[in-house]
Amino acid sequence: MIYAKFALINPWRKNKFKNLFNWSKLVGKNKAIEFEVIYADYELLEGVFEVSLNKDHAGLDLKFGILGYSVELMFYDTRHWDEETGAWKNYDDDNINS
């Protein structure tokens, strides 16, 4: 996994949060893309870059925020990772898929 985050937090926040826009779409049997815009008064400046494998909802996550407003783009696997078997768990048929 590659994960990098930078954040400046507002110490005078009132913990206001609002999802302003959300769009998601399945782009395959187990892959999805999601775009959202949120407002969170505790974030003055934020940047996130994550690429992950072999974990729940693994994929790409990009986020940038300024003065409480953030945009986030995610491309991820909709399945959960089973640590015991080292494979994706498919809840549709309760079988382990690799």
Give the low-confidence spans. none
| Beta-strand percent range | over 45%
Instruction: Name the helix and strand elements from N-terminus to C-terminus, one letter apiece.
Output: EEEEEEEEE
Please give the count of helices: 0
Rounded to the nearest angstrom, the radius of gyration is 16 Å
Main beta sheet: 6 strands, antiparallel
How would you portray this structure in words?
This protein has a six-stranded antiparallel sheet, with no helix packed on it. The two termini are 19 Å apart. The model has no long low-confidence stretch (mean pLDDT 88). It has one domain (2-97). Helices cover 0% and strands 65% of the residues. The protein has strands at 2-9, 17-26, 31-40, 43-51, 59-66, 69-77, 80-82, 87-90, 95-97. The chain is mainly beta.
Q: Which features would summarize this protein structure in a list?
A:
single chain, 98 residues, mainly beta, 6-stranded antiparallel sheet, 3-stranded antiparallel sheet, elongated
How do the helices and strands line up, and which of them pair or pack?
Elements: E1 2-9, E2 17-26, E3 31-40, E4 43-51, E5 59-66, E6 69-77, E7 80-82, E8 87-90, E9 95-97
Antiparallel strand pairs: 1-4, 2-3, 3-6, 4-5, 5-6, 7-8, 8-9
In short:
This protein has 98 residues and is mainly beta.
